[in-house]
Amino acid sequence: MDNNKLLPKLSQNLLEILNDEEYYDIIIEVGNDPYVKIFRAHMIILYYLSPYLRKIQSTNKNKSDGI
């Protein structure tokens, strides 16, 4: 498969992953009751997009409570 066909397919797959509410592996809660907003996310994507989160994750590798 050449790049002209591969990149659109990868982009479509990534959008499907980001919109999939079944296979998230992290929940981020923002705000205070009763105004809490919940974000479901994929840690692998956050890890690669944020050097800050990458640093936190690497220091918390052995902790069971995560970030």
UniProtKB/TrEMBL annotation:
The BTB domain, residue ranges: 17-63
Identification of the protein by name: BTB domain-containing protein
InterPro entries, sorted: BTB/POZ_dom, SKP1/BTB/POZ_sf
Transmembrane segments: none
Domain of life: Eukaryota
Organism: Rhizophagus irregularis
